[in-house]
Write a structure and sequence with these properties.
five-stranded antiparallel beta sheet; 17 strands; 15 helices
């Protein structure tokens, strides 16, 4: 009540207080307006920081905004290493030797780390006592929890002269600058990655297009996602036709079935597979292909498709065949030379002995002539075998195929070798099934097969032993079998054949005896001739043997329908 009375009793005092309050309100309003204008200006200027992706240009714009807040003489931008806590001087403006020395001291004493750790603006006094009235203003450039660097500004301020408004503005500016620098770095990294990826893509494209092999790829739904130029040339399908289409719509069914089988193997085993396929193009052109498939994985290491590499191996196969033919030729010449040299040397030697033999000894002369006669027969046998196998291997060779009785062939063959068997007292028996007597073969050539195998059996069997001939039925199971067969077996009680030799004795000039032991008489062509004759009949020939217990040679002949 008293206060009210005093107030009402002093109108002049009341008017003065009102004016003072009004003035105070006006000043507050002006401060708010100025702060609003400052923040608005800062906001508009800070937006310009994000309009460029160049860190040097961001620094220039940053300094122009800092100049609106404080007066500075020089500045430096320190950026933080991405893989460590160290800082490096990225950009500087108007720094002389004494200012650089001051910054070096500040960095070595860890103030840059401390400012970023505390995330607050700091003013440092002259550390080197050579700056005069300059102080160092450190503004952390932090975006959330990520520190991008520190802006070091030399200002004409004492360390306690920065106003709260200036501090707030500079803190906000530091956050905006940090985001702008982070965006710029991300942009630069993305640009670098784009250039690297672009270069890598061009590099891979050039490699793919310069490949001599056809390279293409399919995704998990069998659609083609890659198709190089060599693939176009090899298959006659353009890239436009192939891309995005299912390969089943473009390639022949036989090739698609082949690829389906390989794709199943690849996805099942997760390993690359390679097989050969004879691809038939138009005009009945056959192209031997080596097809290799390997998994194509995405960025998550998941199987997203298959890469297919197709190589035309025509030249490779031809080269391999030429080398094989050349090797066989060398082996053939070597073997023939050896086989011819032995009888010719014997004939030559004993002929010279007879020519120079002065004693009239009919017994010795007869012995020498017997040797010459035997070696001459061996030479004739070798030449006949060479002519036989050469004739059989010629393209277009044909036989006189007819229905013949097997028991008659066996009887004729046993009669032919009976003299050799008697020399060693070897008995030849036959156990022929009467229901399997009629076969389809060339009579002369079948006798040749029996004589060759029986002769070998006699040669390698001990005295007073037995050679057994038997027959049994063999049902045809192969696609090219036209009917049933008779399986002929010729079993001896000889020395036997080692397992490693059983695979090669049907090759030319391959014999069972060790070269270091006494070489058996023969050309080494008999079984090779037998093999080719039996194959011409449409049958097969093989041997089952155990060392020391004898051997059994089997061969099949088509039964007459």
């Amino acid at each position: 009540m008293e206060v009210f009375t005093n107030y009402s009793m002093n109108p002049a005092c009341s008017e003065f207080e009102s004016l003072e309050r009004l003035d105070q309100l006006m000043r507050q309003q002006n401060c708010i307006k100025k702060a609003y204008d400052d923040y608005r200006t800062l906001y508009c200027l800070s937006r310009q920081l994000n309009e460029t992706k160049d860190i040097g240009e961001i620094l220039e714009r940053l300094l122009s905004i800092v100049a609106e807040i404080v007066n500075f003489s020089a500045c430096a931008l320190f950026l933080k290493e991405s893989l460590s806590d160290d800082f490096y001087l990225y950009e500087q403006c108007r720094l002389d030797a004494r200012l650089l020395k001051e910054l070096d001291i500040v960095e070595r004493q860890g103030f840059l780390h401390w400012v970023c750790q505390e995330n607050r603006i700091t003013i440092l006094p002259d550390m080197n006592e050579g700056l005069g009235n300059l102080s160092l203003l450190l503004i952390p450039l932090s975006s959330g929890k990520k520190t991008m660097g520190v802006l070091a500004v030399f200002v004409e301020l004492w360390y306690d002269r920065l106003t709260p408004a200036q501090n707030d503005l500079l803190s906000l500016l530091g956050s905006q600058a940090a985001m702008a620098i982070e965006n710029a770095k991300l942009y630069q990294d993305m640009a670098l990655q784009h250039r690297v990826l672009s270069s890598m893509k061009n590099f891979l494209t050039n490699i793919m297009e310069s490949m001599a092999d056809a390279l293409w790829a399919v995704d998990s739904s069998n659609k083609i996602i890659l198709f190089n130029q060599q693939t176009e040339k090899l298959f006659g399908i353009t890239q436009v036709e192939a891309m995005g289409n299912d390969y089943h719509q473009l390639f022949p069914k036989s090739f698609c079935d082949f690829l389906d089988k390989l794709l199943g193997k690849v996805f099942h085993s997760s390993r690359a597979v390679e097989e050969e396929f004879e691809y038939v193009r138009e005009a009945e052109k056959v192209i031997p292909l080596s097809v290799q498939l390997s998994l194509l994985q995405d960025k998550h290491n998941s199987d997203s498709g298959v890469i297919i590499v197709c190589r035309d191996v025509s030249e490779r196969n031809e080269l391999v065949n030429l080398r094989r033919i050349d090797q066989l030729k060398d082996e053939f010449l070597s073997a023939v030379s050896h086989e011819l040299r032995t009888p010719l040397t014997a004939i030559k030697s004993f002929t010279e002995i007879l020519l120079n033999y002065s004693d009239n000894d009919p017994k010795a002369q007869k012995e020498f002539l017997s040797i010459i006669d035997r070696e001459t027969d061996r030479l004739v046998e070798l030449i006949n075998d060479l002519l036989d196998i050469s004739k059989i291997e010629q393209e277009g060779f044909s036989m006189n195929m007819e229905i013949i009785k097997l028991d008659e062939i066996v009887t004729q063959s046993v009669t032919a070798v009976q003299a050799l068997a008697k020399e060693k007292d070897i008995e030849i028996t036959s156990e022929l099934c009467s229901d399997l007597n009629q076969v389809v073969a060339d009579k002369h050539r079948l006798v040749q097969v029996f004589i060759n195998i029986l002769g070998n059996g006699i040669k390698f069997s001990p005295e007073h032993s037995t050679i057994r001939i038997f027959t049994e039925k063999s049902v045809g199971h192969r696609k090219n079998d036209t009917g049933d067969y008779v399986r002929v077996g010729i079993a001896d009680q000889g020395i036997g054949i080692p397992e490693e030799m059983q695979r090669i004795i049907f090759q030319k000039f391959k014999q069972v005896a060790d070269h270091h032991k006494e070489r058996p008489q023969g050309t080494g062509l008999g079984l090779a001739i037998c093999k080719r004759i039996i194959e011409q009949f449409g049958g097969e020939i093989w041997v089952e043997s155990e060392v020391g217990k004898g051997s059994t040679f089997y061969f099949t002949i088509p039964l007459a329908k």
